[in-house]
Amino acid sequence: MAAAACAAECGVRVGLVDDNPRLGGQIWRSESSSQQESDPRIADASHWLQRMSTAGVTALCGLRVVHQPEAGVLLAENLDGLYELRYDKLVLATGARERFLPFPGWTLPNVMGAGGLQAMVKGGLPIRGKRVMVAGTGPLLLAVAAYLRKHGAEIPLICEQTSWGSLAKFGLALFRWPEKIGQTIQLKRDLSGIPFAANTWVVAANGQAALDSVDILRDGRVEMIPCDYLACGYHLVPNVELALLMGCAVDQGCVQVDDLQNTTVASVFCAGEPTSVGGVELAIIEGQIAGLAAAEHATEARALFAKRRKARRFADVLDSTFRLRPELKNLPLPETMVCRCEDVPYSRLQQHTSWRSAKLHARCGMGPCQGRVCGPATEFLFKWNPDSVRPPVFPARVGTLATGDEPLHLQHSDVMGGH
Ligand SMILES: Cc1cc2nc3c(=O)[nH]c(=O)nc-3n(C[C@H](O)[C@H](O)[C@H](O)COP(=O)(O)OP(=O)(O)OC[C@H]3O[C@@H](n4cnc5c(N)ncnc54)[C@H](O)[C@@H]3O)c2cc1C
After folding, report:
1. CA 27/CA 185 separation, integer angstroms
2. Does residue 387 lie within any of the structural domains?
């Protein structure tokens, strides 16, 4: 949204494509005007929505980009069919997703990703009166716990795998970002009374038809905690599939960009979580820079470099604070499913030495999620790297994939434009 608004304010024609039915990405998409106007997130979302609307950005929501058949052309689909979008300049801002680690019982109903459960509650899942264990690592756990509590859930415990020492360093580092101190104080208030344990993680989820309790490992001892839901995520991994498909260089899981957010592919820029997981402030600054650069207003973009430098340091601090501890590699048992789309257990993966071999011989990563879940897990467990991305980057209808299928044409005013 920041990239779209800034580019359009420079006078170029801009289209924004988002597969969610509402604008706003992971954080803002369901913040409605019925919520408190004093909530700073509503104010931030409204600010960018207003700027986009004033500058005349065409928003195409509920449309998912699945392929780039040639440079300058994207194929996208929605419930009505296939669309061809043409561009001169493209800013990729595909966000991040949660990292999941396999452990016994993680495929039971009501074991969910932390952000995943939050998204379901945003979508209407009733959570009032339910006992929700929140576990994994990263600041998202706190945001999710606060959100669920606000919607009536009981949170018996938040389990954070990182150590108290790392958290203490993180707390001290926050003084370099005064705006984050305010957010931290607010979160502390929202979470008051909820027990928090560092050095602690879930080792098993128990239940027959659905989850009824979890076993956690705290200070070397296993404890059983009854609950209705487990919200469990191990920080975030950048969504780089579309960038990879276009041929952009990716290093250590992040899209490589230069100062002006240019990727290694001409006319393709990238901003936000795909370049590094650094939170909403960094995503917005990068978006502004990318939008200005794509509209050839490099001087204005350069004025934001210092702000971005400071925000990127926060991404580095997040990375070192919430690094996964090696003990988590011992979580899966031989029979624990690692690739849940294709039912591939841990023991079958142990027979392989690379992602490619596991894919070819055990079908790991070949199911509907195309390795989005098991890819980051096997990267942590075995140090494997997914070596290629093939179209479509998301599951798509056969009609979309069939060659010669005529794409639907959007109205002139709806067609995505660069300059
Ligand atoms: C599940 C989850 C929950 C989160 N909850 C919080 C929270 O409560 N508070 C908080 O401070 N931070 C939260 N974060 C972190 C937060 O999302 C980021 O800091 C911030 O949103 C980054 O902005 P972005 O523009 O890079 O990505 P996003 O806001 O994620 O925006 C990326 C958008 O691109 C869309 N997209 C991706 N691929 C395609 C495609 N092929 N075609 C069309 N559209 C596509 C996505 O659907 C999404 O709407 C959450 C992250 C995740 C993954």
Report:
1. 19
2. no
